[in-house]
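Need tokens for this chain, all 105 residues.
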Amino acid sequence: MRKREILLGFLAFVTIFISSCSQEYVVNNTKASSLESLKVEKMKNLFKKHNWNLDTTIPEKERNNLILQMDYDKVKSFLEDLDNGIKFEKKDTLVGYVKKGTSGF
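Here are the structure tokens for all 105 residues:
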């Protein structure tokens, strides 16, 4: 009888331990997903602010994964440069630049 009580107590302890570990995983996973969703919303608002429409031809989950790979500051800088207009200077390194008096080939 005593062995059964000890075994039952041990099984209850193991069950509670496993249950608490699985709940910790859910909490950590939820934190990560909430941070990801915040970043996606922040990026969507950035695109909307600059009058860019997101691609609707791909599934939203795939689009969100692509957004998560983007760096916010770089995207913001790029969009601001486009809004302000990009100025190019004529230099020998520009593709398609041909000096006067020379052939393009």
